[in-house]
Write a structure and sequence with these properties.
224 residues; mainly alpha; DNA polymerase, domain 1; three-stranded mixed beta sheet; two-stranded antiparallel sheet; 6 helices; 7 strands; 47% helix; 12% strand
């Protein structure tokens, strides 16, 4: 009788042990499945986010290319002035809009493949031109933009005459010329743009801001 009870107890222990092993195996497999499902879900969400980011970037790029830009070109081109191009426009497109290079143009003074930025002021040199009327717009664009010789923030120093054909309205104001404020500076720049991108003489200055102020201004500026 005693041996029978021991036998039955042993069988019960074996059964309980087998059940524990089976339950543990099922739980472990369920955890693995849940872990795999979680990883798949994370991967799917990440993939969707990346696709959304790529779509947004592409959409913004297309939007910028469809937006028009306005830029001024002067120097050795047939029709200097301000022209409007598509956002994807290149300097060669701006030159074509201006009627093409003048006969005396130094065609290597600009990078025709560079993009035109809104508000750019592009200067095309003449062949053999040595006066430093233009400065490179930077390594990224390769364009040549009008710029006076500067000291400090970008305008001419107080003792240095300002090139009226390359100066911005801000440069003129910073020169601190008596009687010439922001309003008159803007008139000068606006007149220059309407006049083919150039002030050609003292008379042009007088037409822009009046005889007296135009005459006085000639003591502080040069016309190149």
């Amino acid at each position: 009788m005693k041996n029978k009870k021991v036998f039955i107890g042993s069988i019960a222990l074996v059964v309980i042990f087998a059940i524990m092993i089976f339950v543990g195996y099922k739980v472990e497999n369920k955890d693995d499945e849940n872990g795999a499902s979680y990883d798949e879900a994370v991967s799917e969400v990440t993939g969707k986010n990346k696709s959304k980011e790529n779509y947004s970037a592409s959409k913004n790029e297309n939007k910028n290319e469809n937006k028009n830009v306005s830029a001024q070109i002067f120097g050795a081109v047939k029709n200097p002035g301000v022209y409007t191009l598509k956002g994807s426009g290149r300097i060669k497109d701006l030159i074509n809009a201006a009627g093409g290079f003048a006969d005396n143009a130094d065609k290597f003074s600009v990078n025709g493949a560079a993009k035109v930025t809104d508000g750019a002021n592009i200067y095309v040199k003449a062949q053999g031109e040595t006066t430093n009327k233009a400065a490179s717009a930077g390594n990224s664009s390769g364009a040549v933009q009008a710029a006076s010789q500067t000291s400090g923030s970008g305008g001419a120093s107080q003792d240095e005459k300002l090139d009226i054909n390359t100066a911005t309205a801000e440069d003129i104001v910073n020169k601190k010329i008596k009687g010439i404020g922001a309003g008159l500076a803007k008139k000068i720049v606006d007149y220059r743009e309407k006049n083919g991108g150039r002030i050609n003489s003292a008379e042009d200055l007088q037409k822009a801001i009046g005889p007296k102020r135009g005459k006085d201004l000639m003591d502080y500026v040069t016309i190149n």
